[in-house]
Amino acid sequence: MSEDARLLLEQAIRAFLDEVPALKPLKLVVGVDLRGRGDVQQFRIVLPDIEVTKDIGVDARIRIDIRRDFFNAMVENGARVADWREAFTYGQAKATGVDQYLKLILNVVERQEERSRTRRARR
């Protein structure tokens, strides 16, 4: 079961970074808590190499908390950056940690979305 989660996490991260390439060189440790029925699976993700390990991640600068079933559904349906933004906006996913990192990621994502909108308008 945790091997599935590792692969899904890696797939989700790669898709996210492909959409927002400016974040690819960011050196960061992220902790992810996948809450299921009665248990919590904790993972540690090291960027930019995308190393996913089943670990508490005490050195994580950012911690993401999300329900396991919601996460699985999002990744299997090919979640895009807009889907992740909506999940964080409506509380299905929560991010905590160092405020500067959270603001940086939000700023980079907003600029990438603006570039994408501008590119579509020109076509």
CATH topology annotation: Nonspecific Lipid-transfer Protein, Chain A
Radius of gyration over alpha carbons? 14 Å
- The domain tally reads 1
Largest sheet properties? 5 strands, mixed
CATH homology group: SCP2 sterol-binding domain
Question: What ranges have pLDDT less than 50 throughout 5 or more consecutive residues?
Answer: none
**Would you list the SSEs in sequence order as H and E?**
HEEEEHHEH
Strand elements, count: 5
Q: Can you tell me the CATH class?
A: Alpha Beta
Order of neighbouring strands in the sheet with most strands: 3-2-1-4-5
General form:
globular
Structural class: alpha+beta
- H/I helix tally: 4
State the separation between the terminal residues, measured CA to CA: 44 Å
* Known CATH architecture: 2-Layer Sandwich
Helix content: 40-55%
Which SSEs are present, and which pair or pack?
Blueprint lengths: L1 H18 L8 E8 L4 E8 L3 E4 L7 E6 H9 L4 H9 L3 E5 L1 H24 L1
Parallel strand pairs: 1-4
Antiparallel strand pairs: 1-2, 2-3, 4-5
Description:
By secondary structure, this protein is an alpha+beta fold. It has a single domain, classed as SCP2 sterol-binding domain (Nonspecific Lipid-transfer Protein, Chain A). It is 49% helix and 25% strand. It has four helices and five strands; from the N terminus they run αββββααβα. The protein has helices at residues 2-19, 68-76, 81-89, 99-122, and strands at residues 28-35, 40-47, 51-54, 62-67, 93-97. Strand 1 and strand 2 form a beta hairpin. The longest helix is centred in the C-terminal third of the chain and has 24 residues, at 99-122.
